[in-house]
């Protein structure tokens, strides 16, 4: 959870998704293989999440058994894995792919 809340898009699919939906510019950094929203974009995303995101959890002896069941029963539009049935799935996948494609045309950020 800490990395989703304070990390960067290179290590968090949640951050990648939210940043793309918010229109942040995805950039290649470092050697050019890592994709983030840059320092300013990641800071803006962290602040947006602090202001707008909520987290809750449920203790379960075998939490890995719950994921498929929850995805099939709930409307979880930001989850791509195992979620082809969600009507937002294709659009979200397209938004993320477009952001990756756009960043390949830009120079590597410092």
Give an account of the 3D structure.
The chain has 110 residues and is mainly alpha-helical. The protein has one domain. Helices cover 47% and strands 5% of the residues. It has five helices and two strands. It has helices spanning 2-6, 13-21, 38-52, 67-73, 89-104; strands at residues 27-29, 34-36. It has a two-stranded antiparallel sheet with strand order 1-2. The radius of gyration is 15 Å and the shape is globular. The model has no long low-confidence stretch (mean pLDDT 93).
Based on CA atoms alone, the radius of gyration comes out at 15 Å
Give helix and strand order, one letter per element, not per position. Answer: HHEEHHH
Number of strands: 2
As residue ranges, the low-confidence spans are none
What is the approximate shape? globular
How many individual helices? 5
Give the termini separation: 27 Å
Instruction: Tell me the major beta sheet.
Output: 2 strands, antiparallel
Number of domains: 1
Q: How much helical structure, as a percent, in the residues?
A: 40-55%
* Largest sheet strand order: 1-2
Name the beta content range.
5-15%
Structural class: mainly alpha
């Amino acid at each position: 959870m800490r990395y989703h809340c304070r990390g960067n898009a290179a290590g968090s699919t949640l951050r990648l998704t939210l940043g793309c939906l918010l229109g942040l510019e995805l950039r290649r950094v470092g050697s050019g293989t890592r994709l983030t929203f840059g320092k300013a974009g990641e800071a803006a995303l962290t602040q947006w999440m602090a202001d707008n995101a909520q987290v809750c959890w449920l203790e379960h002896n075998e939490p890995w058994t719950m994921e498929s069941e929850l995805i099939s029963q709930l409307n979880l539009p930001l989850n791509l894995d195992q979620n082809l049935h969600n009507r937002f799935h294709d659009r979200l996948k397209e938004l993320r792919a477009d952001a990756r494609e756009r960043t390949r045309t830009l120079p590597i950020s410092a």
